[in-house]
Amino acid sequence: MVARMTTPRSLVVNSALSQDLHIVGRCVRRAFLCGLDRLSGRDYSHRKQWIEDGLRQQAQCFAIAMHGFAVMTNHLHLVLRTQPELAQQWSAYEVATRWAGLFPVDNPETGLPESWPDEMIAEKAADAEWVAVRRQRLASVSWFMRLLNQRVARRANAEDGVTGHFWEGRFKSSLLADKTALLACMAYVDLNPIRAQ
Known about the structure:
With 197 residues, this protein is α+β, with helices and mostly antiparallel strands.
């Protein structure tokens, strides 16, 4: 039997170019991402809203455009476009504000997350090295997926009362090299839930 080799993500995703990508993330073993688990009788449909909320928030902060997505019982499809040139146009203050939107700070008195104070945003915006790193991350599909996957995994594990991996791996990505490939992929992703009933 011949082992199937996959192309390393670094050879598929060019962080310096705008690219359309098909992203797939799979859950481990019998973990449920969304829908009704017929064996246990538990309904996980509410987890789709977690993903929708996460995608909506991240799309407002990252230099990544969402073309479409589908949340299946044990995996997730995303069709997106990286836009590194957009991130390069942002001011240092905008980079800091976008980062703050993704990572609220904990209030020391209540322990609840809250928005960054204006002076904290201004302080970070004045740090050129910090801004350069965050600008790069805000244009990175790896950081986009890392954040989405971590947040979903933490909530799902807490809800299920378990620890350990929720996702099979980081994610798989395929380059959609032209408009035909993009449209075919979007149709595939849109029809996936219908085919799976």
